[in-house]
# Entry
Amino acid sequence: MASQHHDHTVGHEEGQHHEGMTKGKIWRVFFYLLALTALEFFIALVLVHGGIVQKGIGVNVVYIALTLLKAYYIVAYFMHLKFETFGFIMSVAVVFLFILYFIALMLTEGGYLNTHYHSFPSWANP
# Structure
């Protein structure tokens, strides 16, 4: 019985599953996330607040794209989705696509409400 258990654990030690995350990969992903966050802060504090770039849909699209890229790195590496089976990855990807669709719908709805109800007399602007 002990030899059967030993044979089972030997298979896992030889890398039958996935290679997992090494310290080097963890630090590499950490610095990618740090660079993306620094880029977001640079855009917000230097470019937008400094008046170099105007606030608008372009800046929002850049923020959303950078945030989704950071979300990919977090989910793929720190939540180990990159090392899962194809079926599980696709089931999570479908949900992710619905989230993207939801973001697009909310931006569209917000833009519509901003342009059509901005001057409605019973809604006081603060």
Confidence is low (pLDDT under 50) at residues 7-17.
